[in-house]
Amino acid sequence: MNLETKNLTYEYDAGTTQAVRAVDDISISIPSGQFVGIVGHTGSGKTTFVQLLDGLLKPSSGSVYLDGEDINEKKYDRKSMRAAMGIVFQYPEYQLFETTVLKDVCFGPLNMGLSQDEATKYAKEALLKLGMQEDSYGASPFELSGGQKRRVAIAGVLAMNPKILILDEPTAGLDPEGRDEVLGLLKKLNESGMTVILVSHSMEDVAKYVGRIIVINDGKVFLDGDGKEVFSHVKQLEEIGLAAPEVAYLMQAVHDAGIPVSTNITTVEEAASEILLKFQT
Amino acid sequence: MLKDITLGQYYRADSVIHRMDARTKIVGTVLYMVSLFIFNNCICYALAAIFLITVMALSKIPPKFMFRGMKSILFLLLFTVFYNIFLGTGTVIVKFWVFQVTYEGIVNAFYMLVRLFMLYVGSSLMTLTTTPNQLTDGLESLFKPLKIFRIPVHEMAMMMSIALRFIPILMEETDRIMKAQIARGADLESRQISKRIKSLIPILVPLFVSAFRRAGDLALAMEARCYHGGDGRTRMKEMKFAGRDVAAWFVIAGYFGAVIFCGIYFKGFTDYLVAELQTGLELIVAFVKGIG
Ligand SMILES: Nc1ncnc2c1ncn2[C@@H]1O[C@H](COP(=O)(O)OP(=O)(O)OP(=O)(O)O)[C@@H](O)[C@H]1O
Ligand SMILES: [Mg+2]
Q: pLDDT by residue (tens digit) across A96-112?
């Protein structure tokens, strides 16, 4: 499913003296199957933007189109849109409410009108994908550790089998291993055809996993392109309080030291092979 | 979606009334309310209206803001008017079933309307110009003497300010949880009551969990900073009586004295008004009959 925004604008407390324009005239298009990273400084409007995409906020002006249809039209079928688009909030663990882990994950699929059996099947699949083993399914979600809660909450959205999955900082507060697991899972989901939109602070994560990066600054699209393209604008990124991945700086330093390596590199693996190549020749 | 609920409707502005000590405003408002209810004649109401308009003008609050919450008391106003007009006692004009319209009733209805209206505007003036925190501090200071009766005034005030502080936080939290559950397909707009109640569970459970967690965190943080109740505690913002408060007290005392004077001096005014209304209406009735 193709997601598109046209002149999307959102103001908090519109009409008062404290009005904040959190999203300002964003027009982008996200075709089916892309893995998109949205990065930006704290308060740049990322959360607001993804909530607009999912129809949880009503735009002040402009529109969001899902497969060409305006999702904020009165007659639009929101229920099927909810099934098609899943969103994992920042700190999703605070939305758990059921008595057991499995029941909580079933909540979404059941709301979509699936039978209990189907819902349970999808829920178990989703939990397994997030590395939650069978023996924890009967536990109360409130007894789990923070990281486990996070996984259950993500599974709760994944179990709805959305075609588009939006995640708002899913890895904040996870340990490095958990982070790699979650991001690896997203990569796999994307390879199986799901559109994934990942909001993140971490340039490293984004550079490593994501196909397209959208940099948001002050509610506007600042840069939009693949990793190499975006990270070639190191100066501008620094001006808005962001940075390229550490390796990009390393390669620049190596280059400046007189070794003719390519500076157009964004991941550690690429950097390693590039440097090795220079030393072997 | 929860934005529409305004609690603690403070309106930020820089005026004499805003800067005034909260205690002056609280006691002043109470006296003003009393003044509205002890006498029943329009000279006193005229005085009250002049006083109110003066304070309103001084407070620099746009009238639009003052009357925004009026809708909530509209029912009360209508009910009072209805009750007084149709169920009053006195000289009857028309009568049907249990209802009777009387001259006294009409005059009383008008008085009650004016009274309630001024009561509402007067008390909103206080809440609009005083932050909830100033209000609690003011109340704490006013109720301090109750300490001799072993009433924990400071603790109660502290509880009140914490509760006030938590309201916007919990509202934000509710908003976030609601969005998350809507995104998971929760049906919050169903018309069926049973479904509606059931749909509250996914919102209330996380909300309570987070409220308790926050309360626990706060208690811990307060303890870590050696909070030990009110004894020997100093304030960051000391409340001070300033020149303007002294002036305000003179104005309030003057107003109160004037109301008492007028209330006694023009005592018969209401009866006079009823009589006037009666003759006026009778004239009209006679006139209509004459035409017929
Ligand atoms: N409920 C709200 N009411 C008023 N203003 C808000 C609200 N939520 C966010 N804002 C403002 O909108 C702007 C964008 O906020 P948003 O949450 O979208 O930022 P963000 O990019 O997600 O930040 P972070 O990286 O910290 O999560 C900020 O300036 C913020 O102060
Ligand atoms: Mg955010």
A: 999 999 999 999 999 98
